[in-house]
Amino acid sequence: MGAPLLIKPPAGVVDPVQLAIIEFEKGVIPITVKRRGKFIKGAVV
């Protein structure tokens, strides 16, 4: 889907879903949460 690889692909693996699973299992997928809107006071549930 156009995302760069974050790992060196193992020999013979060309399926993007399998590559994504390997990246996930190795914990190399960066996740950033961005939120827009008003500041909410109090506990976030």
Provide structural commentary.
The chain has 45 residues and is mainly α. The chain has one domain: Eukaryotic RPB6 RNA polymerase subunit (Alpha-Beta Complex). It is 24% helix and 0% strand. It contains 1 helix and no strands. The chain has one helix at 16-26. The chain is elongated and about 50 Å long.
Number of domains: 1
Tally of individual helices: 1
What's the end-to-end separation, in Å? 33 Å
Q: Low-confidence segments, ≥5 residues, pLDDT <50?
A: none
Q: Could you state the order of secondary-structure elements as H and E?
A: H
Strand content: under 5%
Assign a percent range to the helix content: 10-25%
* Count of extended strands: 0
Biggest sheet character: none
Overall morphology: elongated
CATH class: Alpha Beta
| Computed Rg | 17 Å
Which secondary-structure class do the elements indicate? mainly alpha
Kindly identify the CATH topology. Answer: Eukaryotic RPB6 RNA polymerase subunit
Keywords:
45 residues; mainly alpha; Eukaryotic RPB6 RNA polymerase subunit; 1 helix
Strands, helices and their partners?
Elements: H1 16-26
Question: What is shown here, in short?
Answer:
By secondary structure, this protein is an all-alpha fold.
